[in-house]
User: Fold these one by one.
Assistant:
Number 1:
Amino acid sequence: MSTNKVIHALYNDDDILMDAVKKVKGAHHHIEEVYTPFPVHGLDQAMGLAPTRLAITAFLYGITGTAVAVWLTWYTMIADWPQDIGGKPNFSWATNMPAFVPILFELTVFFAAHLMVITFYMRSRIWPFKEAENPDPRTTDDHFLMEIPVHDNEEELKALLETTGAVEINVVDKH
Amino acid sequence: MYQFSGKLKMLAIILMALGLLGTGISFMSAPKTLEEAKEILAKQNDAHHGGHGEAASHGEAKEAHATAAHGESHDDAHAEHAFHQMQNRPWSAVFVAMLFFLGVSLLVMAFYAAQRVAQSGWSVVLFRVMEAITNNLHFVSIFMLVFIIATAMHMNHLFPWMGEGVFDPKSPNYDPIVDAKAWWMNLPGWTIRGIVYLAIWNGLRFIIRRKSIEQDNGDLKLHKNLYNLSVAFVVTFMVTESMMSWDWIMGIDPHWFSTLFGWYVLATFLVSALTITALVTIYLRSKGALPLVNDSHIHDLAKFMFGFSVFWTYLWFAQFMLIWYADMPEETTYFVQRFNEYKLPFLGMVVLNFIFPVLLLLNSDFKSIPWFVVLGGIAILIGHYVDLFVMIMPGTVGGQWGFGIGELSGILFFAGLFIYATFSAFARVNPVAKGNPFLHESETFHYYNIQHRGEDNSHH
């Protein structure tokens, strides 16, 4: 009945961490999480994480923004109240299109950027007053932490991690 | 070392021969007398069931002023006007193709110099490709020089301000607007400036290329020296390129001016230059001549193609929209003529130069797939040829434009010349700039996304 036990292996160098991740993956253990104080290039690849789809959402949001801008300029300038403003040709949307391009552009960027950021917050579960999920405060400064769930193989895992240059190995009960 | 294959050399020679033949035909078939031109016009009118109001729009063209002032009948004035345009057509066809390849080779040189100035790490394995392409600069420059001299000798009428009596107040051709610009627009000045631009570009290119080959010995002093020379090139290039675009392109419409024209011309040539670098790189890599170039380098080139396509669109639209919005008659005529007489190329190039590349090259994975980059690259090259076409043709041939033997032959000839110049230069030296201190960085260059896809990443 040790289902909630995890091992926290701490490292103080990102190169050593990368090698350790590769070794643990090589021994076919599941890595629950890695905490680092800064982005470590290639870590996601070593852990076998799937690429992000955030850029695809941004593209879709951008198209939405363009559509909103087209509708806004068409409805307000052409359909609702087509006034002659300084001789601008408000007969149809196309005849006055160049004047709308700055708005089309800005709303596209606005939608793409803001909705993508909000998507990022939601998917990463970040919001104000959120309780930090940090297992060890040192990982925000100069330490790297690898978390591996234990399934009745505590000794084996510990022995493996000791060969990877960990500076500290702790077995922790997770709630 | 790369071997310039006999097949490719044959292709280059065939292209040049076809181009010469077609250009000859287009010069022969241009009308020599006013009567011939009238016959052609009559045929055009029959084909269109009595014309389609073309004459009316011609009345607005600036060049028509001089002839219309004679008090002749409108038909005769129109015929004479059209006659000059028909005579200009073979010259313009050659000029557009020549300027396109000159600009592309020049901008490859400018990009290459900028890479040296920026001490860029990724592009060193592409240096020899870029240097080889710039070899074409020498070849086209010779033709440009001949063109400058021929134009200065009044062998063509591409530049209306070079016409007879334009600066003479007593002449019926007197043009006070152009006369006020005589301090810049005068034949000796134009000719000398043109020769000076060519001399600066070719001179610096020649020295930089020679030193770059010498640098294969690993001399770091040479590296510093090349850096300084590249700074000199970039600075003089920025000045001469702006002036070149006024002299050789904007001068065709001497009543019209635009402040950002130089950058706009720069953008169109720069995208084409990056595209042609990518295409030549992909070709040479497929022949096994560039063992150090990986998908990440292609990805970076495609990113540049994408980015500068957007940059071109930005400048194109900034120029168009400001003039459209204010709608001042002396500026708007430029776009009225293009919009009325050149609607398809004028709007079509926005699709080819903006919408197509943006949708095609937006995806990061697609940017490293060679055939995809080639597909986007061909669209970009066609689009920017059309761009130059729309810059030059309305002022020289006006409503008599078309894409026929003359235009195609111009492209074929200079494409053949390009192939010959580029690949013969590439075959002459080591395909790797092995003395460059950044070579290792370039060799091990890997873009993060591509690693995910599993490009060889033994260098991590």
Note: The two ends of chain A are 14 Å apart (CA to CA).
Number 2:
Amino acid sequence: MSLLHLAIVAPLIFAILVPFFYKSFRRIHTGWFVLPLPILLFIYFFSFISTTKSKEVVMKTLDWIPTLGINFTAKVDGLGLLFALLITGIGALVVLYSIYYLSKGKEKLHNFYVYLLLFMGAMLGVVLSDNLIVMYAFWELTSFSSFLLIGYWYHREKSRYGAQKSMLITVFGGLSMLGGIILLYLMTGSFSISEIITQADVIVTSPLFIPALICILLGAFTKSAQFPFHIWLPDAMEAPTPVSAYLHSATMVKAGIYLVARLTPVFAVDGLWLWLVASFGIFTLFWGSFSAVKQTDLKSILAFSTVSQLGLIMSLLGVGAASLHYVGLDDNLYVVATTAAIFHLINHATFKGSLFMVVGIVDHETGTRDIRKLGGLLHFMPITFTLAMIGAFSMAGLPPFNGFLSKEMFFTGMLRVLEMDFFSFDSFAILFPILAWVASVFTFIYSMILVFKTFTGKYQPEKLEKKPHEAPLGMLISPIILASLVIIIFFFPNSLLSDNLISPALSSILPSLLTDEEGFMVHIYQWHGFNPELFMTLGVIAVGVLLYLTLPKWRRVYDLFPENLTLNRFYDGAVNRAQTGSFKFTKSFMNGSIRSYLVYIFTFFIVILATALFYKNAFKVDTTNLASIGVYEVLLALLIMIGAVSILFAKTRLSQIILLGSVGYTVSLFYVLFRAPDLALTQLVIESVSVALFLVCFYHLPKLRREETRIRFKLTNAIISVGVGAIVTLIALSAHSNKFFSSISQYYIENTYEKAAGKNMVNVILVDFRGFDTLFEITVLAIASLGIYGMIKLRLARREED
Amino acid sequence: MRSNNIILETAIKVILFIIVLFSVYIFFAGHYYPGGGFIGGLMTAGALVLLLIAYDIKTVSMILPFNYRIMTGIGLLFAIGTSAGAIFFNVPFLTHAFGHIDLPILGEISLHTATIFDLGVYLVVVGVSMTIIQTIGEDE
């Protein structure tokens, strides 16, 4: 186990210790014990930058299940490292923030930090595993720990609803991803991502390619909240705000992005991948920003904004995958899209993280997140306002914030779709820049709502639960760091990010474009000159300002959508219908009546045996081996038939019991006739005993319900019993006619005296040759008698108590 | 109150021994003629049931103070004991041994470990039938 493995699972191991810290040091906030861990991990992963910069990949393998090819292979390359830095860096800031956000006295801190550390370790495992099965295991652990974190305030009904919803949707995606992984394994014989990438040309010709692609994308889309699976994210906002900041803006929702980026070299050869990723992304972008504008809750706005930004990154990855259809780097139009995706991924983590923290502060200091109640907080919280402005303006894509840079690159990428001339992109390509531009306008509007509806306007103290004031310094540190990054990245994007993080990440996403010595030359400009992108941004600002100011007038557009056609309604309906439907289905056949169950059992019996007889062509009647029929057999058979049939038509139970006895005695006569004296003796005695027991039962029947009626006639019963009789007869006839081997009884005949010193063959078989059966048969008898004894005695004891 | 069943009681006093003797005969003859532990046990139980019919449960349990559940257990022990005994002679479980011995009065006689196994069966069958009948009989 190398240091790298230890670093990945360190949060999981540390999670074990958290409850001890919590119990032993009640006076110190547990978060302080947790805080050093992500900082240390951040420093550790930071030391890898020089390695990945020179395009080296660190691979360390720890055997787990080597016979199945499942080993914990940790792999640090540009993409994995970028995510690892985001996870540990923002993780550290979130832990710091949570120390001030969650109260020491009121909250169950040990739960919180255990879940958070579980999540951190799982997320590191997802981005740093080269083995798909290991990645899947960590992937499900992120779903699971996210479920726990969303339901952290489990006494609230909405938290539980949100947690369940996110669990159902992400686990659905996770399971289909597992299907995709298995299909990939079937095609390549390996779970290792690096191995699979080298066989990309084999995979694309396989018939399993399309199913694998769709399964994997389902996993990525559900996790990254793409349309129509985005509905879990707004409901996950019931989690504590540090959790929303960490999971639902910076890390977990980017796991799907990571998966798409990671498997781009495998799937991007096919046009379907490009189409699906790009168009789902662009539509999610539009839909998320469009829905964000109508929200009134600050965290819902941010949730839909996250959905839309994730769609943006996803669409860029889709378009960027087109670059693999060119050879080499020169003149490659679409690399810029992938660059923009990576760049925006980093930017989004910075500004969205700080925005969530800002919203958390507002919530914490005023007691509400409803923008209809908020307003005029500028004078009370100047620092928070500044932070909110920086975050929101960056999100809207304004200079001098990093969002401006990535949005410009985003427009560039979308405009280049117009030049795409393969996979029939030419007919619909125009939709991409248009949707991108419209979505940006909406992004601008909700960013403005976020800042100005909260901090400016009329101050309404009567609607607030607390008197607002500035947050404590500790709560402000994390958003200040993130907001400073927003500005610093704008001014120094190249020296900070391009060579260190973006270029190595690009070489992991688009490896085939490079020869060994080459590296991606990423250069980000603040000023492009007067090009279409700039005019698009100017247009966004102009139209956005106009629409924001006239918002009350066109707000009613949202009322046009029918209430009961929303995706949430659909989800709720599906969950409800699944429950009531399965309940009804179960109820329809599990009706509690033993008669029905017997009907099912016997019908199944008839159907399955009849089909087997028919398909195997097994029915055969062969009369060569039959013995001659004597007059006694005929007489006894008539007797037993009369007995059996008259049971059905007997009027009283007493006569039924006696008729049954007569059948039993006739059977023992048959034994006599067919020369089985032991059986005849036993049958006689047993029949007497059981008739006596029947009479006892009959005697004990309660008087009130004793009905002296005939068995009622039912057609189904008749059909089924005739069917069972017929099928058993047919099988007996066929079995007799299809004897392939002679009996082994000759051995017993020869050896009964020789080897077992007995002359009664039946008895010798019972106690000697096959005594094992007898041993357990007498055990059965013993259990039966003890059972009867127990039932009767226990019942008596209870009756005495009453 | 019970009616005076003098004929039944007297008859059973005579018949009982014949039935028991017959059941013992059937038990021992089992290895060579029809019979064996199972049917022998059932017949002994039948004899005891006759006693139960003629007298009552209390009287019978006074005459024959057996705990039939323990009898079942002993029977199982006999059966398993003979089967497991084979292991000590390095042969597979449930291997029976037999031999012919000359006894002074009875002459040559064959002894067989299967008989002990059968004795187990016999005891279990008597125990089981009597447990069932007694329990049901005592039930109100």
Note: The first helix of chain B runs from residue 6 to 29.
